[in-house]
Design brief:
With 136 residues, the chain is mostly helical. The chain contains six helices and two strands; from the N terminus they run ααααββαα.
């Protein structure tokens, strides 16, 4: 059974009406490079994708050194926000939105990434840092 209209409308909003983001997530959820549109999803795939995109993707494991380094990079890049309790902290919402976007090198939740995928994300964040400070 194909995804219903209400599911597709919700997905389009979550994709921010970007065809590239839509294609990225549809390919990822179906495992098929030929499928690039939400209308090609089954109802269960659409439900799974909606659940995935509405959850927070930036949960950290404090015992993982790569996760700690990503936190450090977020602060260096300036992806921070104020917290009454802790002062200036890394902006997890911004990282979650980035991981869900077409700009992310690994479009999946941080907790689901293996060490190779985390290295790819780290390289991307280091590149952003380098561009911010004019490194060549």
């Amino acid at each position: 059974m194909k995804a219903v209209s209400s599911q597709r409308k919700q997905l389009y909003k979550l994709f921010r009406y970007s065809k590239e983001t839509e294609a990225l997530h549809v390919r990822h959820i179906t495992g098929c490079d030929d499928k690039t549109e939400a209308k090609e999803l089954t109802a269960s795939q659409a439900k799974q994708l909606i659940a995935s995109l509405t959850t927070h993707w930036a949960y950290f494991d404090k015992n993982n050194q790569q996760h700690s380094y990503i936190l450090s990079l977020l602060r260096q890049i300036g992806w921070t926000k104020s917290s009454e309790r802790y002062g200036i902290i890394a902006d997890m919402d911004r990282l979650s939105d980035f991981l869900k976007s077409k700009k992310s090198p690994v479009p999946k939740p941080l907790q689901n990434m293996d060490s190779t995928e985390l290295s790819t994300l780290i390289n991307c964040l280091e590149s952003i840092l380098g561009k911010k400070y004019g490194a060549k």
